[in-house]
Specification:
By secondary structure, the protein is an alpha+beta fold. Keywords: Calcium, GTPase activation, Metal-binding, Repeat.
Length: 1212
């Protein structure tokens, strides 16, 4: 590539000059290319790798020098000889003559520099290269990365680090390359080269550790091997980036979401050094935004713009608190350095004024922010106040424009749809029974501008103010409400309130019944999403009403199991509200849809919050606070189960071994975590747990679970089995009471199912929560996230392994492959799917991978992916001719015609080729050519599917293959009913010839194929004659069709020829054989001429010659040469035909005989006459060798890496 000219003083050091002229020199780096340069070359190559000069210096370069100067200028470099030679030739052809005109050397230098810079500018313009793209050094490193590991352009390098890789007991110093989809390592030391490629999706464990010998080590584990890397300059940065990339890979396995680079990152300042790649900046920004969103419970699409140190004036204690201000698109947030002292969230939608106050010694660089609820926040000690105010002003402008736009849209929608909604409202109200009208008016909003939804929390309608014994409790509840009101007065109310240690104390004492919904919305952050999405829930309800799918069926089944003991869900009103919320969420997030336990949590949310509020609380739970908990495989709950095991090992070590032996942790954690203790604890106590959870997040659940274990430590140590342990824990949880609750006692289902033993003494929920904070409050949210990452790797890889085992178990009885072979083949099948997800394919990855489908259907591949596997695994694949045959195979295996095949279909096809007998293989080959021509597929996409349905609709499965697919199983009657027409017979012949080109018995197979072809041509002609006679008897006026086929005879002088050369040895005599065979009908040489007769007199003089070359891949690419007479034949010399060309003389394509055909029996019988073909098709296939080769092959530009690490170690 051309580079901005830089001066070079010592042009000859470590470089070898290969070409030179008066102005330019082409040089090669010592240690590269042929010869290697001896010891000096080895040393230079080693130094280049160790010191990273190989990233800065490509192995070839071009220097510019004026004759009288000692200073050289580098103007181009290249990673290959071809690339640098192209640049050299361009210079010779375009610049040399021009330079000779100049008289002044300075003018020459200026001209050359300007020309090179112009070329670079033109390239950047044509390729849309942005100014703030990666540095030249990083681009060269990316180029080297792709060249070393055979990666395509789509595989983006993120960063690379110097380190040592421990190969056995020997460290190899080199470079670790971290790309979006792979971890790679390269080392070259004194002629010894080591390459390692590990796909992130294959990593089962990634951890940073330290030993006495190796203080900083990163251990990367896969299913096959462990890899150790050490001697990092910055191990923390390397490990964090590796974690992030592995997390992206796990996310892709989990929900099929690939990586998309963020193009909206702010541009770097001109003065800032470009030390990292754009991708690295993107990933760093993502990590910071994720931490920011988690810290302040912000919506998932919020991006952090920046943060700065500052102080905040807190009026409640008259202090300036030191902390950090965070600014994002829609929020200004603050958190104190001392973690629990104070935090603040200011949505920009609430901001009215942002102004700079006067600086003073006490308050340097102050900034005042006022909100709609008349609160003013004073920040000071801001380093770059002017820039900060400008950023906030920009975001404020965007926010106000969004609000106005939403108001306009909402207004226009309401005005245009008033009539529709009023009609719906009147229909609904008229259809309801009169007895429920008063309740419904109170519970539903029947205004004409929204879908009917509950406007009150269900608890307010069913709260029974009761007799005298509850008066003390009501008094205590009143005091709680007063405490919260006083708190609001002092610390502010709503989203912008100061959140302090005092807030936490009030939460731990229990939120008043009447304030729960409001405060849950506030602390969870759901209030932000609800406020910024007005009308969203009503629209979802409207769209989802009356729709039915698997999720709605499951919802209907579970509706009456949701808190059935509560009166709110003992009538249709509460059930209807629950149905609407769950169905709306299933439509919002089809990846989750509906999962058991969601109904229990949602029913409690509906008791304390309005219907729309309950929906947004459910969104916050499922998508932010309990990530991946409620998907089809409850991955999030399994991850937190692993985290809980780690915490139990650390905090209750004396109990951990016992719990592991009993196997209790996995049982309790799922039921406790999925329902937030609602299913195992009395209702009035469990809602206190939810109070704390919405305020402090998942750490509350871990703390409480550890407290429960700690309180029962001696009972659990005495348990003999898991049943006894579960009974002990269940009895304890049943006894957890909330003495402050004003609710009437609700029978707890879990307690009704326990045995009749002595009840456990009552445990106060507030004391239990307080104890959990005292004993286990040191658990930090960031530590939990770190542990979650580690467990997520383990859980997702365990799920992937289970998927593999289930798929193999499903089809192992249907095929002759062993279990080990099926597992390896599944890994290759999945790897091909993942590779296309990384680098693109002809179909959408989300269509090919759906985790909600049965195991066998989860991974599917399209035709492009199938071609890759066909070339690697199918015995009939052979070079350039493989693609047409692969396409035919794919269309045959694709049962439902959707352009995708699953693993079973793939194995059924491969199984016939690897384990089928001669007849089965020939049937399969025959059927691939029964389908309509490939060219028709473009015009009529469904024709192949329809034709196959017609041909094989009542085919029975093969006995040898068990339950094979309907297309592959062949019924004797149906296969005899289907004939191959002339056009497909030609394709069948081409397929046979292409299959043998690299076989050991290539020559014999060519001869045998020629004999079989001639026999089949005769049979087809005979069949044509019989059918022609039959038609003539039926209709005397019927004319004979062109294209009769028969053996060459002296009488057939005006017929076309089919030349089939014998192969490489006989290529020079093929024409002679063609002439010789005309005179002899009895002695047939192996390669003979076959005559295709055109019985129509007017077409006798015209025919076509089709050159079928190994380079051609489809019917449309064949060269057609017109020949007027036999003089043309004489002029066609043998030397004009290449070694691998089959010359077929046929009637013109427009006169292909549609009545000519052969049957499967004729095809089978003809092949059985040739011993060489019989041996070829009966030859056993070494499946293990095919699999091993496929695992190790790296296709050009698109490596196929199996789950086993792809590792090469070569000696120089």
């Amino acid at each position: 590539m051309w580079v901005i000219p830089e001066d070079v003083l010592l042009a000859g050091a470590l470089w070898i000059t290969e070409r030179a002229n008066p102005y330019f020199i082409l040089q090669r780096r010592k240690g590269h290319g042929d010869g290697g340069g001896g010891l000096a070359g080895l040393l230079v190559g080693t130094l280049d790798v160790v010191l990273d000069s190989s990233a800065r210096m490509a192995p070839y370069r071009i220097l510019y020098q004026t004759p009288d100067s000692v200073v050289y200028w580098i103007i181009a470099h290249g990673t290959s000889r071809k690339e640098i030679t192209e640049h050299w030739e361009w210079l010779e052809h375009n610049l040399l003559q021009t330079l000779s005109i100049f008289e002044n050397e300075n003018d020459i230098t200026t001209f050359v520099k300007g020309k090179v810079q112009g070329i670079i500018a033109e390239y950047n313009k044509n390729h849309d290269v942005k100014e703030d793209d990666d540095t030249d050094k990083f681009k060269e490193a990316s180029s080297k990365f792709r060249k070393l590991f055979g990666m395509p352009e789509e595989e983006k390098l993120v960063n690379y680090y110097s380190c040592s890789y421990w190969k056995g007991k020997v460290p190899r110093q080199g470079w670790m390359y971290l790309s979006i989809n792979h971890l790679c390592f390269y080392s070259y030391l004194l002629g010894k080269e080591v390459k390692l490629v590990v796909r992130w999706a294959d990593i089962t464990q990634l951890e940073k550790s330290a030993t006495l010998l190796l203080p900083d080590v990163i251990k990367v584990s896969t299913r096959a091997k462990e890899h150790l890397f050490s001697v990092f300059l910055n191990i923390n940065e390397t490990f964090k980036l590796a974690e992030q990339l592995a997390n992206i890979a796990m996310r892709q396995l989990l929900d099929n979401k690939g990586f998309e680079q963020d193009r909206s990152l702010p541009k770097l300042k001109k003065k800032s050094p470009q030390k990292v790649s754009a991708l690295k900046r993107d990933l760093d920004a993502r990590a910071k935004s994720e931490r920011y969103r988690a810290l302040f419970r912000l919506p998932k699409d919020e991006k952090l713009d920046g943060h700065t140190d500052c102080t905040l004036w807190t009026p409640f204690n008259k202090m300036h608190i030191l902390g950090q201000m965070f600014v994002s698109t829609n929020y200004i947030c603050f958190t104190s350095k001392e973690e629990t002292l104070c935090s603040l969230i200011i949505p920009l939608r609430e901001v009215t004024i942002v102004e700079k106050a006067d600086s003073s010694n006490v308050l340097p660089s102050p900034l005042s922010i006022s909100t709609k609820n008349r609160m003013t926040f004073l920040f000071a000690n801001l380093k770059d106040r002017d820039f900060l105010v400008q950023r906030i002003s920009d975001f404020l402008q965007q926010t106000t424009s969004k609000i106005y736009l939403e108001r306009e849209l909402t207004g226009s929608l309401n005005s245009s749809e008033d009539e529709v909604y009023s009609q719906q409202g009147s229909l609904l109200s008229s259809s309801l029974p009169q007895s429920l009208s008063s309740d419904v008016e109170r519970a539903f909003n029947l205004n004409d501008n929204s879908v009917p939804t509950a406007t009150e929390a269900l608890m307010t309608m069913y709260r029974r103010r009761s007799p005298e014994e509850f008066n003390p409790k009501l008094a205590k509840e009143f005091l709680k409400e007063q405490a919260w009101k006083n708190h609001f007065t002092e610390y502010g109310e709503g989203v912008c309130m100061y959140r302090t240690e005092k807030t936490k104390e009030l939460v731990l004492k229990g939120i008043p019944e009447g304030m729960r919904g409001e405060l849950w919305l506030l602390f969870s952050g759901a209030v932000n999403e609800m406020t910024t999405h007005p009308g969203y829930y009503e629209d979802l309800v409207e769209k989802s009403m009356g729709k039915y799918n698997l999720a709605t069926e499951e919802i209907e089944r579970d509706l009456h199991r949701s808190l059935p003991e509560h009166p709110a869900f003992q009538n249709e009103m509460g059930i209807a509200a629950l149905r609407r919320v769950l169905t709306a969420y299933a439509f919002r997030n089809p990846n989750i849809g509906y999962c058991q336990a969601m109904n229990i949590v949602t029913s409690v949310l509906l008791l304390y919050a309005k219907e729309e509020e309950a929906f947004w609380l459910l969104v916050a739970l499922c998508e932010r606070m309990l990530p991946d908990y409620y998907n089809t495989r409850v991955v999030g709950a399994l991850v937190d189960q692993g985290v809980f095991e780690e915490l139990a090992r650390e905090y209750v070590p004396q109990l951990y071994d016992c719990m592991q032996d009993l196997g209790v942790i996995s049982t309790i954690s799922l039921s406790w975590f999925l329902t937030l203790f609602l299913s195992v604890m009395p209702f009035e106590s469990a809602v206190v747990v939810m109070d704390c959870f919405f305020y402090d997040g998942i750490k509350v659940i871990f703390q409480l679970a550890l407290s429960v274990l700690h309180a029962n430590i001696y009972q659990l140590l005495g348990c003999k089995d898991d049943g006894e342990a579960m009974t002990a824990l269940g009895r304890y949880l049943d006894s957890v009471t909330n003495k402050d609750s004003t609710l009437p006692p609700i029978p707890h289902l879990h307690s009704l199912l326990t045995d009749n033993g002595d009840p456990h003494p009552e445990v106060d929920i507030f004391k239990l929560v307080s104890s959990s904070y005292e004993k286990f409050g040191s658990i930090r949210a960031d530590v939990i996230e770190q542990m979650r990452f580690k467990q997520r790797l383990r859980v997702i890889q365990t799920i992937e392994d289970a998927t593999k085992r289930n798929v193999v178990r499903t089809i192992v009885t249907e095929t002759a492959f062993s279990i080990d072979e099926l597992e390896e083949l599944f890994v290759l099948f999945k790897a091909e799917h993942l590779t296309s997800c990384y680098w693109g394919g002809s179909s959408n990855p989300t269509e090919r991978h759906d985790p909600s489908l049965p195991y066998l259907e989860q991974y599917r591949i399209d035709v492009e992916q199938f071609k890759g596997l066909f070339n690697l695994l199918f015995p009939w694949a052979n070079g350039v001719h493989s693609d047409p045959l692969a396409l035919r195979f794919f269309r045959l295996l694709d049962e439902n015609g959707d352009g995708l095949i699953n693993f079973r279909e793939f194995i059924n096809g491969l199984g016939v080729l690897c384990h089928g007998d001669l007849t089965e293989k020939l049937k399969l080959l025959y059927k691939t050519h029964v389908l309509p021509e490939l060219t028709q597929e473009l015009e009529e996409p469904d024709s192949a599917f329809e034709a196959t349905q017609y041909f094989f609709e009542d085919i029975t499965p093969e006995t040898s293959m068990g339950k094979a697919t309907s297309r592959l199983g062949v019924n004797q009657r149906s296969i005899t009913d289907v004939s191959v027409p002339q056009s497909q017979f030609i394709e069948l012949c081409k397929t046979l010839y292409s299959m043998f080109s690299e076989d050991v018995a290539e020559q014999e197979l060519y001869h045998a194929t020629a004999t079989v072809t001639s026999l089949l041509l005769e049979m087809g002609e005979v069949g044509k004659l019989f059918s022609s006679f039959g038609r003539r008897d039926h209709n005397q006026e019927d004319r004979s069709e062109p294209g009769l086929c028969r053996r060459a005879t002296p009488e057939a002088r005006d017929l076309g020829d089919v030349f089939i050369p014998a192969g490489p040895e006989n290529k020079s005599s093929s024409c002679e054989q063609g002439k010789r065979v005309e005179g002899s009908e009895e002695e047939l040489p192996p390669m003979q001429d076959i005559k295709l007769e055109d019985s129509s007199p007017k077409d006798t003089g015209t025919s076509s010659v089709m050159l079928i070359s190994d380079d051609d891949t489809s019917v449309s690419s064949y060269s057609v040469l017109s020949a007027g007479s036999h003089e043309m034949d004489e002029k066609l010399q043998c030397e004009d035909i290449s070694d691998d060309t089959v010359l077929v003389r046929l009637p013109h394509s427009t006169s292909i005989d549609k009545d000519w055909a052969i049957t499967f029996e004729q095809f089978l019988a003809s092949v059985l006459t040739e011993h060489a073909l019989v041996l070829y098709f009966e030859k056993p296939v070494d499946v293990a060798a095919l699999i091993t080769n496929a695992k190790n092959v790296s296709k050009v530009g698109r490596p196929l890496l199996s789950t086993s690490d792809y590792e090469i170690s070569t000696s120089g």
